[in-house]
Design brief:
12 helices; two-stranded antiparallel sheet; eight-stranded mixed sheet; globular; alpha/beta; Transcription Regulator spoIIAA; 35% helix; 336 residues
């Protein structure tokens, strides 16, 4: 029997926030970021984390500080740091990271996310080469490249993704590359045409949550648009695995998660991740429930019943967590 999840009801009032002193060029985090979206977050109570929410801290005996030093030396950004990922200690400790290109200021203000918002800086023309050199120096066999949303760019940043992929393959031809892309809002056809020049080994774009919660959790994004982005990519590159991820704990129901999974399969998505949402601060969307491990096991079983080739499902799972292990069997199967 599935045990009852830790659940709380929390009010989210849609109301315009007062205009404050605003510097569009500054990197806004936490309250400075969420104060300007048309949602006022009023949590009813703060849930205590259950026993199954555990993370590993970085240790001097691992590669944690070595990785941080290498990243700083090459002026590189990771989503691990910018999004306050709870698994950073474990991943950096093992010498892995998810690189975030095109700066550290996102053009959107999703209230679940801890990545900073602001007017982005111009693209760094040296970033593809610096990224490729770092990956070669670390001898990484599998890398994940993601980015902030760049709605200011005519191609949404697709060309920069291609340059990064090309440089990585030039210096590390055996390295497999997964990209976790934004939705290229209004530019998806242009972006996909550009990606033809250097398609990744795995194409990932996260749906994040159920469509009912999009206005609250993903303002500026569209559920059907995100699904169709991956469907269009699969039509162009049928042998490249597609992947998407979900968070639980934002107010969705189990039934809504199962329906999203069905929608993913109907759009040709091969791989799935589901993890527990953890609020970065009191100024972000609150955790409305902690999903019990038994429920995660149910989601995983249902995923394989639906035909996903791989499903990484669990409280601490994130889209890029152990991404090499997630993709290993799928990529090997495609070589046969």
């Amino acid at each position: 029997m599935t045990r009852t999840d830790h659940t709380v009801v929390s009010d989210t009032v849609r109301e315009a926030q007062p205009a404050a002193t605003y510097d569009a060029t500054a990197k806004q985090k936490s309250q400075a970021k969420t104060a300007r979206i048309p949602i006022k977050i009023v949590p009813a109570e703060t849930l205590k984390k259950p026993e199954w929410i555990r993370v590993k801290a970085g240790s001097p005996s691992t590669r944690f500080y070595e990785i941080k030093d290498i990243l700083r030396a090459n002026k590189l950004v990771t989503v691990c740091e910018e999004a306050s990922c709870p698994n950073i200690g474990e991943c950096f400790g093992k010498g892995t990271a998810t690189f975030m290109i095109m700066g550290d200021k996102c053009t959107r203000r999703c209230p679940f996310c801890d990545v900073g918002h602001g007017r982005p800086d111009p693209l760094d023309v040296n970033e593809p080469e610096n990224l490729a050199k770092t990956i070669a120096a670390l001898k990484l066999k599998y890398v994940v490249i993601t980015s902030v949303d760049r709605d200011d760019l005519r191609d949404g940043g697709a060309g920069h993704f291609v340059e990064c992929i090309r440089k990585i393959r030039e210096l590390s031809p055996s390295t497999q590359i997964e990209v976790l892309v934004p939705d290229f809002r209004g530019r998806d056809d242009r972006a996909l045409e550009i990606l033809k020049a250097a398609p990744p080994d795995v194409m990932n774009h996260n749906l994040e949550t159920a469509p009912r919660l999009y206005k609250e959790a993903r303002p500026g994004s569209d559920y059907a648009f995100s699904l169709n982005l991956l469907k269009k990519f699969k039509a162009l590159f049928p042998h490249v695995p597609t992947k998407s991820g979900l968070m639980v704990g934002l107010g969705e129901t189990d039934e809504e998660i199962l329906q999203v999974m069905q929608d993913m399969r109907a759009h040709g998505i091969d791989m799935l991740t589901i993890g527990q949402y953890l609020s970065p601060s009191g100024h972000h969307l609150p955790v409305r429930r902690y999903v019990h491990p038994d429920t995660f096991k149910m989601f995983e079983a249902k995923a394989y019943e639906m035909g996903f080739t791989h499903a990484a499902v669990g409280a601490m799972v994130r889209s890029s967590y152990h991404a090499d292990q997630q993709a290993h069997g799928v990529l090997n199967a495609n070589k046969v």
